[in-house]
Design a protein that fits this description.
This protein has 146 residues and is an alpha+beta fold. The chain is built from five helices and five strands, in the order ααβββαββαα. It has one domain: HIT family, subunit A, CATH 3.30.428. A five-stranded antiparallel β-sheet has the order 1-2-3-5-4, covered by helices on one side. Bound molecules: adenosine monophosphate and zinc ion. The site of adenosine monophosphate has 12 residues, from loops.
Length: 146
């Protein structure tokens, strides 16, 4: 693949990959790269991205996705060993309603420590609605519709 079809000139992550913008890389191979997030939610917040420009989860190739997740595990282990992380969140957003702001597929790796953010904990653990079995079964049928 030629460089011009692999990278987008106006994509900040493509620009970081091609050295047109600064990035602090902690991992690079021929398929994926990982660098530190410029607005860290937690110390060590890392982004893992395919080297090829894909927009989101529906666009990314299976091959790249598998490699992104393999590297997510490598980075997570480094965080647990070298940053004294006690836990890890792996997050991804596809689309504006989900919070995606950079439209080059990426996965966030968040190193966590107990008590590091009560708002985050509250958001994740406060679930008021318990679905009925009927509701869940209906949804499963809807999801699996051909
Ligand atoms: P999302 O909102 O899921 O699309 O995440 C985009 C992430 O990219 C945010 O966490 C930003 O802080 C991060 N980001 C934006 N620009 C840069 C940059 N130049 N270097 C590193 N991270 C960046
Ligand atoms: Zn890109």
């Amino acid at each position: 693949m030629s460089e011009s079809s692999k990278y987008l000139g106006d994509c900040i992550f493509c620009r970081i990959l091609t050295g047109k913008e600064e990035g602090t890389f902690i991992y690079r191979n021929d398929k994926v790269s990982a660098f530190l997030d410029i607005h860290p939610l937690f110390e060590g917040h890392t982004l893992v991205i395919p080297n090829e420009h894909f927009v989101d989860i529906s666009d990314v190739s299976e091959e790249s996705l598998i490699e992104v997740m393999r590297v997510a595990k490598v980075i997570s282990s480094l965080m647990l060993k070298n940053l004294n992380a006690e836990g890890i969140n792996i997050m991804h957003s596809t689309g504006r309603p989900a919070g995606q702001t950079i439209h080059h597929f990426h996965v966030h790796i968040l190193p966590r420590k107990s008590g590091d953010d009560s708002e985050f904990q509250k958001w994740w653990f406060t679930r008021s609605h318990k679905a009925s079995r009927l509701e869940l079964n209906d949804l499963a049928s809807k999801l699996l519709k051909k």
